[in-house]
Amino acid sequence: MDAPAAAPAGRHAAPPDGTPPRGRSEGPWPRTGDRVTAALLEALAASGELPDAWRPAFDAVPRHHFIPGEIWEQRATCVPVTTDPAWWDLVYRDVPIVTQVDDGRSDGPATATSSNSMPTMVARMLTALEVADGQRVLEIGTGSGWNAELLAARLGSGNVTTVEVDPVLAEKAAKVIKEAGYSPDVVWGDGARGWESGAPYNRIIATCSMRRVPYAWVRQTAPGGRILAPLAGDFWSGALVRLDVGGDGVASGRFVEGARFMPMRSERPGPDLPADSGTGRRGRTGAFPADSMAGLGFALYAGVKLPGVVMADGAPDGRYQIWLHDRKGSAATVTQEEVRSYGPRQLWEEVTAVHEAYVNDGGPDSGDFGLAVSPGGQRLWLRSPDARLD
């Protein structure tokens, strides 16, 4: 039988870092920068993604100042973008930009390891953070420094600390931020530990995904403060959660929307065991509730009920497909017409059984789910913090 079809690449979005591009400010490019900056911000404002409170910061901190001359566009692979017209076009499209591959090594397979998030997502996250004048913010994942400088432009440099695990990226970001006239505290360290010496903070925002919100962040947030972070599981590729920190040392809140970010470096996934094509078998799909299964609500639900199972979906050849695997040698490729299963588990049957339970539970959407983080760990809840799902 055929080997299991590979899931599509790029299910997890790739975001960026950077130093100011040398040579981009020569000739006609200052006028280009002004024009495309204004066009992007007008589009964001017209769509409602950029509120009035954040517009001055975005005006003062153009994205292109934080994008290095060497960048990549994330497609099936990372494609270098070097020429001026293409560079400007990518920088001012509403897309993430890869700013580092292979952790800066020159001999790797060109895997994205740092990026600059799409402007819409940057604006959404800063809005969801709900900052106020005088508040102190800790950012986890400096990258290019753009997000940290937007915070500094809004709140003042003295109220912003940003942590970057890559010393080269931290140094570059500190340099470009200083050249732009701001001075937030840029520190090199493991963001999973937060930054104790600057605590307490009123807000913590992460620009990399993680499986679990570190309790160190809760401990370093003042009561009444907020944590905004992208989480990722096996079954689901990413979701933004907004947690409010109580005086009891517990942070709790709901999921806001889907959000795919690069994983925190300490949480990069290891290699999966390959599925054994010799165990391949075909079957009929049966019920195929593609719309419901593709939603974030089901993904959060199934992620708890099927730990270790990974799902991806897409239509690379024009027809919708689902790919499943469990990292231990079981896999399934599902279309409207048939299921191809591999390994000891019947993953499609397991997923459809969980989907039936999900429907019987009212088919909750992503806004019905929440997370609580305490000294004892984190737990997912459904509809109420008292209704533990996991």
From TrEMBL:
UniProt enzyme class: transferase
Biased composition (Low complexity): 1-16
PROSITE patterns assigned: PCMT
Key words of the record: Cytoplasm, Methyltransferase, S-adenosyl-L-methionine, Transferase
Compartment(s) where it occurs, according to its Swiss-Prot or TrEMBL record: Cytoplasm
Annotated stretches, region: Disordered: 1-32
One GO BP: methylation
Broad class of the protein's primary localization: cytoplasm
Pfam families recorded: PCMT
Annotated InterPro entries: PCMT, SAM-dependent_MTases_sf
Cellular component terms per the entry's GO annotation: cytoplasm
An annotated Gene Ontology molecular function: protein-L-isoaspartate (D-aspartate) O-methyltransferase activity
CDD domains registered for this protein in UniProt: AdoMet_MTases
Enzyme Commission (EC) number: 2.1.1.77
This protein's record includes keyword Cell cycle: no
Xref: PANTHER family: PROTEIN-L-ISOASPARTATE O-METHYLTRANSFERASE, PROTEIN-L-ISOASPARTATE(D-ASPARTATE) O-METHYLTRANSFERASE
Protein family (similarity comment): Belongs to the methyltransferase superfamily. L-isoaspartyl/D-aspartyl protein methyltransferase family.
Protein's UniProt name: Protein-L-isoaspartate O-methyltransferase
Native source species: Streptomyces violaceusniger
